[in-house]
Amino acid sequence: MIGKIKAHLAEILIFAVVVSILSIGTYSRNGLWQDAIGLWEDCVRKSPNKARPYVNLGAAYVSAGAYDKALDMCYKAIRLDPREAFAYYTLTLAFQKVGDLDEAIAMGKKSLEVDPTLFLAHYTLATIYFEKGEYEEAAGSFKKFLKVYPNFPNVHHLLAVVYVAQRNFDKAIEEFEREVRIDPYHALAHKNLGQIYWYEFRNRKKAIYHLKIALFLDPFLPERGKMRNLVRQLEESS
Known about the structure:
With 238 residues, the protein is mostly helical. 79% of the residues lie in helices and 0% in strands. It has 13 helices and no strands. The chain has helices at 2-23, 31-46, 51-64, 67-80, 85-98, 101-114, 120-132, 135-148, 155-165, 169-182, 187-199, 204-217, 224-237. The longest helix has 22 residues, at 2-23. The two termini are 21 Å apart.
């Protein structure tokens, strides 16, 4: 029974992060991206032989969900300047959105080959590897990003969920704990800590502590009712 609970816990955490990854970079369909598209279309008309306006227009198209147009603009930029790293990175985002994860990875690697300081590509590659279930590669890319930005919000949380997927709960705890030190208001990290401390380590005190914080911080916490029941059960059995 405990084994089934542990497996279910890992599945819950992984599913929650996949949903958050798929929502990264999604913007409401309002006038903001329309203004950006208009701006960069004008720049392309005025500077048709410069790569950067095409890249920026491609990025605006990604934000607008016009991925085919984004791909077209980025390839035009690369034809003008094969060393335009951000064009490859924007292709990474576009291919990720259309579900061509292998090509997204290839473009992400190419962007880093052209510009090794484009550290955001490590983060994006990590999310793509995670989507593919390639957890070792995802962990490696998150770590490369964290070497440069050790306190970047939510990345330790994502790395922790990678470790959960690998059933490496000791490392998962370390990364979740780092996340709540960076952001004490990260309700989901507290919730995940509470669940792991109880279901994996049977640490009642720490489980109650983190679950109570999560419930306090987020009135819309996923599975809030179940978490409240778990806290009550743990307190009654202590």
